[in-house]
Amino acid sequence: MIKETTAKMTTIMTNTHLSPRKVPLRVLGALCAALVALAIVAAPTYAAFGFESFDGTYQDPGGNPYTQAGGHPDKVTTDFRFNTTPAPPDSAFPFNLFPIPDGQVKDVHVGLPGGLVGDPTATPKCSINDLSAKPATQLCPPASQVGQAYLHLTFTTLGPLPIFNMAPKNGSVAEFGINAIVVVRLAATVGSDNTVSISSVETSEGLPLAGLTTEFWGVPADHLAELGVTELERKPLLRMPTSCTGPLQTTITANQWEDPANFQTASFLSHDNEVPPNPLGDTGCENVQFTPSVSLQTTSHQADSPTGLDVSIKVPSEGFKNPDGVSQADIRKVKLALPQGLSLNPSAAGGLGSCTPQEIGLTSAVGTAPVRFDKAPVACPESSKIGTVQVKSPALEEGLGGSVYLAKQQDNPFDSLLAMYAVVEAPDRGVRIKLAGQIEAGEGGQLTTTFDENPQLPVEEFDLKLNGGPRASLRTPDQCGEYSAAMELTPWSAPESGPPVTRTSSIAVTSGPGGSPCPSSPAGFDPKLSGGSQNPVAGAYSPFGLRLTREDGTQQIGSLDVSPPQGVLAKLAGIPYCPDAALASVSSAAGAGAAQLASPSCPAASQVGTVTVGDGAGSNPLYVDTGKIYLAGPYKGAPLSLAVIAPAVAGPFDLGSVMVRNAVRVNPETAQITTVSDPIPSILHGIPLDLRDIRVNLNRDQFTLNPTSCEPMQIGSKVTSLGGAVATPSERFQVGDCERLGFKPQLAIALAGPTHRAAHPRLRATLRARKGDADIGGVSVLLPKSELLENAHIRTVCTRVQFTAGAGGGAGCPAGSIYGYAKAWSPLLDQPLQGPVYLRSNGGERELPDLVASLGGQIHLDLVGYIDAVKARLRTRFLNTPDAPVEKFVLTMQGGKKGLLANNTDICRERQSASVQMDGQNGKVRDFRSPLQVKCGQSGKSARLGR
């Protein structure tokens, strides 16, 4: 038996290039038996498992090196040999004649150079059942042969063995088969680096494989014709890379059954036929055409509206299919600049998620190049999906589909605010290509998206669609018209083939929002204001809210000044200011908003309200309710300010914090408040905020106080657009239940100093009001005839110009125009208001100068009194006092040589009283007499003189 087997093996060894179609079945059977015996008798060592050699060629029909980029070579060969060890001398004859492989090979993976691809549709396909038949060539279609192989065993070489184009099994884009004693399947897959690999896995353990030589035909029909197969159409199977960057590197990786974790690698560079070889890369890139076409279409053609976007790139494939042609270059880089005005839509953030590096399978470090991904299925959340992608390749029979995902901010391949992933896949073919696109938002929100270092794979059509709908990613321009987008495409053949090409495509905006007529140019500006007290009861504390909205297609809001009605006031007592240093620390840096939410810059004790904003076009804006309103100190000449701090955190985005400081100006005569805002940011880090709705709610407990007047009033505003247009929307305002408010203030007047006739007494008037009563609207005090105006003591009168000069409030008045002092206590303030009393000219409107109490403190008020005479009695009227609660007010006027009053009689001889009339803000009137308090007699005791 041993002699018979030895004789048969000797015959096979002498025919080292014997084709399987010439090997009798009985011989193959004997060979298999011998291989099994060899595996039993000679147990190999695998300590030196690895490659003895690895090489290959790219040839033209004459056998010369083929280097035309994008062309179709005649042959592509690879040859690898494993390390072997001589058999031990004591091995049974004839096995001691043959070297033993250093390990039984298990898996072999050959990584092709980037851009070297094949077209499995070039020939018919053979089924695995037909390939497994004996002999295979009798059942596989002859036209399905795409090359030949030589199987190097330890004792012989089998070949040439036909390589057949196979129907691929699940997980491979193409498959090739060889029937050599056992069936060898070579699966073509696309790896994580987006290059093609040819793999043979789980090689038979009984096969003492020492190496393999493969020869794939660039145009199979040309070689099959030599074998008598003439019915096959000439189609290229292989295409060279379209890049001319240098020698092509082919790699090989293998492991062994004995130690599967022990992978060994080798590689070679493309070269000529010289010895030693000279490295050769692809040439002729100047012959590689690149004529892509581009089209862009928005899903909406309405101005200022949410829209999706369809981007299509087409590359002619004739050269890929033409065996004598040159394929067009693969696309290396795409840079798309959308037109100005086609910007991100903030409302898209509603419900939007993002994809982390772990979920997409990023294997390179964040912010480093080149970008690399794994081949694992994508685990991005569905909420991060923003579109779809479809790819048609001339190398595949079926198209590829996939999804587009939003990358996580600052945690993406570019460490950028905006980025996206496009995933193209065909899971049943083992294709999963992951691409990373960087999105830059430039000045004015113009978007530029770049996909760089794209795979060297032929693409005939690439279609990327961003979702439309109410929360679409983009917003159309504000005006009708044609808008041009520019796409710069760089081929892998550049620079030899020339510079990148630029293609433009226009999008059309043909109507206004909702199909309305096209907006005017510039667009109109007609914002709407609404709001008021939540509990519109006179004199009650109540949250106070405002809402400002604008319609789609109108100019954007730039700033907002608001004037609540007179009497709508705030209780400042007990509220600390947010320090200026804290306000200065508010960061607008991307990513800083979350920190502001977690640890606000301003103390909670200074918060007085909240702000909610609605951003984005369409019927479903994104509402962000993170804004807080803080009381702050003087600002831009105003005594107070309100700082709105809104962390711009929405969905997956953190754009830092927006701070808008509002100067709170107080009308010094009416106490009416006007808030004047700084410019409201319209864009953050290139992302337009696109404000549609601003809701302000002053909701601190017992902060906002209603007026005690029930007269109809209005909330006024001044809204300025980004384009400079001004609108003044207003809202009717009125509180009720004024009748329930009482009104019974008291006024006491005291004179001090000499009481005789012609003496000049000091005057002290003290007003007290009850808590919860209506505020005083006016006061008229008519002194008794015993008191006259001493004209000779009117030294200096402050002019109106002087009174308002500098900081105002009499700061520019001469010292001589001061005739008294006043002080007022209000429950709304921590400290009383106080200051000098001036005589101020009135421009000739009245005969006598006005009496003005300049009250300074947390705010500033000027209480203006008109002086005149009625039936020889001196009268002072304060006609328009603020609708503000005052617990106590004290007015002191100088006496003696500076006194404005002169006694017309000895005021201790007769009882004197003043006539007082007070009007409540709620319409109630209180008239009464106030006896003058004087000190009479030697005792110095006060006496009330009245009649």
Question: What's the SSE blueprint?
Answer:
Elements: H1 2-14, H2 25-41, E1 51-59, E2 75-82, E3 84-85, E4 100-101, E5 105-111, E6 117-118, H3 128-132, E7 145-153, E8 157-166, E9 174-180, E10 182-190, E11 196-200, E12 209-217, H4 220-226, E13 238-239, E14 249-256, E15 264-269, E16 293-298, E17 306-307, E18 309-314, H5 318-321, E19 331-337, E20 343-344, H6 357-360, E21 385-392, E22 400-406, E23 418-426, E24 431-441, E25 447-451, E26 461-466, E27 474-475, E28 481-491, E29 501-509, E30 528-533, E31 544-549, E32 557-563, E33 569-570, H7 580-584, H8 593-598, E34 607-615, E35 622-632, E36 640-650, E37 653-666, E38 673-677, E39 683-684, E40 687-688, E41 691-698, E42 704-705, E43 713-721, E44 726-727, E45 731-733, E46 746-752, E47 762-768, E48 776-782, E49 787-789, H9 800-804, E50 818-825, E51 833-840, E52 850-855, E53 861-870, E54 873-878, E55 888-893, E56 901-903, E57 913-920, E58 925-935, E59 942-945
Parallel strand pairs: 46-58
Antiparallel strand pairs: 1-2, 2-12, 3-4, 5-11, 5-14, 6-13, 7-8, 7-12, 8-9, 9-10, 10-11, 14-15, 16-18, 17-27, 18-26, 19-25, 19-28, 20-27, 21-22, 21-26, 22-23, 23-24, 24-25, 28-29, 30-31, 31-41, 32-38, 32-43, 33-42, 34-35, 34-41, 35-36, 36-37, 37-38, 39-40, 43-44, 43-45, 46-47, 47-55, 48-54, ...
Describe the protein.
With 947 residues, the chain is mainly beta. The protein has four domains: 2-283, Sandwich (Immunoglobulin-like); 293-515, no CATH class; 528-738, Uncharacterised protein YcnI-like PF07987, DUF1775 (Immunoglobulin-like, Sandwich), CATH 2.60.40; 742-945, Immunoglobulin-like. 7% of the residues lie in helices and 40% in strands. It is built from nine helices and 59 strands. A hairpin with a 6-residue loop joins β37 and β38. α1 (2-14) crosses α2 (25-41). It is rod-shaped, with a radius of gyration of 46 Å. It starts with a helix and ends with a strand. 48% of the residues are buried. Residues 1-47 and 939-947 have low confidence and may be disordered.
